[in-house]
Amino acid sequence: MKAMHRSSLIALAALALCIPRTGMGESVLVSGAGSTGASASVDIRIIVPPVMQVLENTHPEQLGVAVDGQWSAQQKLVVMSTMKRGFCVTLRLATPQVEGWQLHSLQQGGVTLSTVADGYQVCTARAGRYTLLLQHAFAAESTVAGDALRWPVRTDLTAL
Fold first, then answer.
1. Is 4 a residue whose pLDDT tops 70?
2. Span 134-143, average pLDDT
3. Going along 8-146, which residue ranges are E strands?
4. Cβ(91)–Cβ(153) under 8 Å?
5. Displacement of CA 138 from its chain's centroid (Å)
6. What is the DSSP letter of 117?
7. Domain span at residue 75?
8. In terms of C-beta distances under 8 Å and separation of at least 24 residues, what long-range contacts does 68-73 make, across chains too?
9. Is residue 25 part of a domain?
10. What is the CATH number of the domain that holds 122?
11. In a domain, 40, yes or no
12. Which single residue of 24, 109, 155, 156 has CA 20 to 30 Å from 117?
C-alpha cells in the first residue's frame, strides 16, 4: 500500500511540472537566420539645459539724502546658473549725477570682482547658485548732494 501511495505522489509531481502555471512569467526565444546571438547597447545621456536665472535682485529703490556728499547701499543678487564655465554680472552707472563709485564684494571663494571701462564685473568660474552681496558707495555732485537719488546702477548678466 505504501508503494502504491508513493508511486501516486511521484506521478502527481511529474504531472504538476508539465501543467503551465498561471502567474508565471513568460519568455520567448527568437533566433533569426544566421544570427549568432543577441546583443544590445544602451546609450544614456543626461542633458542639463543651459539656464541662467536671477532669483533675487534687491537694493533700495532710492538712496536717501547723501551724508557728507556720499550715498551708500547694499545690493543682494541671487543668481542660479547651469553654465559650466559660470557667468558674469556687469554693473554700470545709469545716471550721470553720480561720480566716485566704489563697489566691494562681500564674497569669497569662486567669485571675482574686477573693474571694467564703465563699471564693475563680478564673475564666477562654474555653475551653481550664488548669493552676491555687493556694497556700493557713491560720491554725489554738489548740486544733488542734499537730495534723494533713484537707484543708479544697471545690472547685466552674461554667460561665459
1. no
2. 78
3. 52-58, 62-63, 70-81, 87-93, 98-105, 111-116, 119-124, 128-140
4. yes
5. 33
6. T
7. 52-159
8. 69/139, 69/140, 69/142, 69/145, 70/100, 70/137, 70/138, 70/139, 70/140, 71/98, 71/136, 71/137, 71/138, 71/140, 71/149, 72/135, 72/136, 72/137, 72/138, 73/136, 73/151
9. no
10. 2.60.40
11. no
12. 109
8-57 pLDDT, tens per residue? 656 555 555 555 554 444 555 555 555 556 678 898 988 878 889 999 99
pTM: 0.65
Question: Which residues contact residue 107 at a Cβ distance below 8 angstroms, ignoring those fewer than 6 apart?
Answer: 130, 131, 132, 133
Report how far apart the first and last C-alpha atoms of the chain are (Å, whole number): 90
Residue 17 within a domain: no
Kindly report, residue by residue over 78-99, the tens digit of the pLDDT.
999 999 899 999 999 988 777 7
Write down the pLDDT at residue 99. 79
Which single residue is written with the C-alpha cell 558674469? Answer: 88
Tally of structural domains, the chain: 1
CB atoms within 10 A of CB 125: 13
**What torsion do the CA atoms of 48, 50, 56, 59 make, to the nearest 10 degrees?**
150
Q: What is the pLDDT of residue 71?
A: 84
